[in-house]
Amino acid sequence: MRKSRIKYLIMEHLGIRLTTFCNLNCRKCADLLPYQKNCHYDYNLLMEDMDKILGVVDFIKEILLGGGEIFLYPHMNEMLLIMRNFRMIIK
Ligand code: SF4
């Protein structure tokens, strides 16, 4: 009789651009942010997207929060609390 193996679907990295706002306005910004219209990731949409992703993977090893300047994101506190409380997110 064969033993069944439990396999998990693990996402190695998930990059989330929370905002394109940045207060430094570097002339040579690699993302050209000073030359674009700025916006924040809609918080409700972000939560919906996270639900969808966490509905299809077992674990996310690492989430990279990016911007712009992520501390200009108005829901940063909530985002950090949610990520800390998700057991499926490792770091
Ligand atoms: S995102 Fe980085 S490179 Fe671009 S303007 Fe902000 S600090 Fe400068």
Quick tags:
26% helix; binds iron/sulfur cluster; 2 strands; alpha+beta; two-stranded parallel ribbon; 2 helices
Q: Into which percent range does the helicity of residues fall? A: 25-40%
Instruction: Please state how the strands of the largest beta sheet are arranged side by side.
Output: 1-2
Please state the average pLDDT score.
Answer: 88
* Uncertain segments: none
Which shape, going by the Cα principal axes? elongated
Strand content: 15-25%
**Main beta sheet:** 2 strands, parallel
Structure classification: alpha+beta
The DSSP helix count reads 2
Bound molecules: iron/sulfur cluster
Kindly give the count of domains.
Answer: 1
Rg measurement, Å: 17 Å
What is the CA-CA span between the terminal residues?
38 Å
